[in-house]
Amino acid sequence: MNSAAFERERDRLVAEIAENLGKCVTAVNQLNRNIENVTSVDDGFSSVYDTWSRFQQALANGSYADAEQPAPPQLLARENDETIRLPPGIAPGRGETLQL
């Protein structure tokens, strides 16, 4: 009688464990699908991120061309060799004074 009760309890616990493992597998599969969905949405925004990143660089550097490549050194000269003041944001040097 004791062994029969033990076997019934064991079978009940094994069935409960199997049911809970099935639920766990289902939950892990759902989590995997959700992660795949998030990853695919994230990949869709990479081009938007690149566009906004270039826009931010253009604002920081003054122009899109400046954001794409470093500006070549510009030589400004006057015959009397005086200091030249450059307008901010338009000319190289961001309005700094240049000594020629």
UniProtKB/TrEMBL annotation:
<dbReference type="InterPro" id="IPR013958">
    <property type="entry name" value="DASH_Dad1"/>
</dbReference>
<keyword id="KW-0137">Centromere</keyword>
<keyword id="KW-0539">Nucleus</keyword>
<keyword id="KW-0995">Kinetochore</keyword>
<dbReference type="GO" id="GO:0044732">
    <property type="term" value="C:mitotic spindle pole body"/>
</dbReference>
<dbReference type="GO" id="GO:0005876">
    <property type="term" value="C:spindle microtubule"/>
</dbReference>
<dbReference type="GO" id="GO:0072686">
    <property type="term" value="C:mitotic spindle"/>
</dbReference>
<keyword id="KW-0493">Microtubule</keyword>
<comment type="similarity">
    <text>Belongs to the DASH complex DAD1 family.</text>
</comment>
<keyword id="KW-0158">Chromosome</keyword>
<keyword id="KW-0132">Cell division</keyword>
<keyword id="KW-0963">Cytoplasm</keyword>
<protein>
    <recommendedName>
        <fullName>DASH complex subunit DAD1</fullName>
    </recommendedName>
</protein>
<dbReference type="Pfam" id="PF08649">
    <property type="entry name" value="DASH_Dad1"/>
</dbReference>
<dbReference type="GO" id="GO:0042729">
    <property type="term" value="C:DASH complex"/>
</dbReference>
<dbReference type="GO" id="GO:0051010">
    <property type="term" value="F:microtubule plus-end binding"/>
</dbReference>
<keyword id="KW-0206">Cytoskeleton</keyword>
<dbReference type="GO" id="GO:0051301">
    <property type="term" value="P:cell division"/>
</dbReference>
<keyword id="KW-0131">Cell cycle</keyword>
<keyword id="KW-0498">Mitosis</keyword>
